[in-house]
Every structure is written in structure tokens, then in C-alpha cells.
Amino acid sequence: DLVNEREKIIVEIKNKHNTMNSSSATQTYNKMVNHLDTTKKGYQGYVVLLIPKRPRRYRKHFAPNDDGVPVPRRDDLMEIDGASIYEIVTKDKDAFKKLYNCLPDAI
Predict the structure, then answer these.
(1) Helix, strand, coil distribution of the chain in percent, nearest 5
(2) Contacts for 23-29 with beta carbons within 8 Å, 24 or more apart?
(3) For the chain, give me the number of helices (H) and strands (E)?
(4) CA 47, CA 62: separation in Å to the nearest integer?
(5) For the segment 70-103, what is each residue's pLDDT rounded down to a tens digit?
């Protein structure tokens, strides 16, 4: 969904934790691995759940199960929450909170 050439980051965004079942997680994994191995070598890939199941910051390897078999873990492919990715991209730990706070006025 997003590419930051300067920071060498590629991002796949999912709005909410329940929008990705195991089949779409495997498809997302394969898509990201393809990019990281071909056109975006040396980049860090992130699968972002903007609104995670639990409201906490996290960063973990993104390695879903493919028909019950775990796919290989990669250090260049992580799952991360929305607040943490906003911090990485903006260098502001409160960027996501600031975005949410300004939305009512914008809407």
C-alpha cells in the first residue's frame, strides 16, 4: 500500500484485526515476500493492523500459517500496530494519537 524510498520501508495496511483471515494473511505474506525478494531488496516490510485486537503497541514477525503449516519467519517482514508504524514513519511517538484527535474537526 505504501513505499518510503528514503527509509526503505514497504507497508501493507489492514484497517482492523478482523479484516485478515488465514487465507488473506498467507496471500499478504506471499505478496510482501515477492516484493522484498525482487523489487524491494534491502527494505523492511511491515503488515500494519491500524486497530489491533488489543490496544497496545507491538512488533512481531509476520509468519502466518499456510494450511496449518507455518511459513518461514523473516527478519525483514514484521506485523505492527498502527501507532507504532506512524511513529516509525513520522519520528513522532504521538503521531497516531494526534491524527485521531484532529479527525472530529476535519470531519
Answers:
(1) 35, 30, 35
(2) 25/64, 26/64, 26/65, 26/66, 26/71, 28/62, 28/64, 29/62, 29/63, 29/64, 29/66, 29/71, 29/77
(3) 3, 7
(4) 7
(5) 899 999 999 999 999 999 989 999 999 999 899 9
Distance between CA atoms of residues 39 and 80, nearest Å? 22
What number of other Cβ atoms are within 10 A of residue 94's Cβ? Answer: 12
Pairwise CA distance, residues 40 & 63, whole Å? 19
Which amino acid appears at position 25 of this protein?
A
Look at the pTM and tell me if it is higher than 0.70: yes
Cell of 70: 507455518
Under DSSP, is residue 68 helix (H, G, I), strand (E, B) or coil? coil
Beta strands in 1-107 (DSSP E): 2-4, 9-16, 44-51, 59-61, 65-66, 69-70, 77-81
Q: What is the rounded distance in angstroms from the CA atom of residue 34 to the CA atom of residue 97?
A: 32
